[in-house]
C-alpha cells in the first residue's frame, strides 16, 4: 500500500513520514504489507498522483480548508482520501495514522 501525506508545503509531514516508516519497519506484520509512506505539498498532489501508484492520500489537518479540492483531485485519480485527526497529527501518532490508512484502504 502506498500512502501519500499532504500538507501546505510538504515539510511539516516529513517528520511524520519518518515516524511512520520507522513504525512499519519495527513491526513484521506491517512489513509484509509492503507499505510505503511519502509526503508532498498540496500543490503537487495532481502531478504526484499522475506519476506514482498511490492508494491512500491523508490530508494534514492544517489544510482542512482545501479538503473539497483535494477530494476532487483524488476522486479523479480513483484514490481514497481522508483527513488526519488533529490530535493524532499533533502527537505524531504513527500507529493511529497507519491504522487510519489501512482502514481507508480496506473500505
Automatic annotation (TrEMBL):
Q: Does the keyword Cell wall biogenesis/degradation apply?
A: no
| GO BP term (any one) | phosphoenolpyruvate-dependent sugar phosphotransferase system
The segment(s) forming the PTS EIIB type-3 domain are 1-107
Residues annotated with Phosphocysteine modification: 7
Name the keywords, alphabetized: Kinase, Phosphoprotein, Phosphotransferase system, Sugar transport, Transferase, Transport
Which molecular function GO terms apply here? kinase activity; protein-N(PI)-phosphohistidine-sugar phosphotransferase activity
Record keywords: Ribonucleoprotein included? no
InterPro entries per UniProt: PTS_EIIB-like_sf (IPR036095), PTS_EIIB_2/3 (IPR003501), PTS_EIIB_3 (IPR013012), PTS_sugar-specific_EIIB (IPR051819)
Which PANTHER family is this protein grouped with?
PTS SYSTEM N,N'-DIACETYLCHITOBIOSE-SPECIFIC EIIB COMPONENT
**Protein name from the UniProt record:** PTS sugar transporter subunit IIB
Q: Which organism is it from?
A: Oceanobacillus sojae
Amino acid at each position: 500500500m502506498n500512502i501519500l501525506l499532504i500538507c501546505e508545503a510538504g515539510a511539516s509531514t516529513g517528520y511524520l513520514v519518518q515516524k511512520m516508516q520507522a513504525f512499519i519497519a519495527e513491526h513484521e506484520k506491517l512489513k509484509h504489507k509492503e507499505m510505503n509512506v511519502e509526503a508532498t505539498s498540496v500543490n503537487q498532489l495532481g502531478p504526484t498522483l499522475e506519476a506514482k501508484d498511490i492508494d491512500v492520500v491523508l490530508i494534514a489537518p492544517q489544510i482542512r480548508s482545501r479538503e473539497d479540492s483535494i477530494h476532487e483531485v483524488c476522486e479523479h485519480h480513483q484514490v481514497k482520501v481522508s483527513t488526519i485527526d488533529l490530535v493524532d497529527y499533533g502527537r505524531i501518532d504513527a500507529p493511529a495514522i497507519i491504522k487510519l490508512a489501512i482502514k481507508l484502504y480496506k473500505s
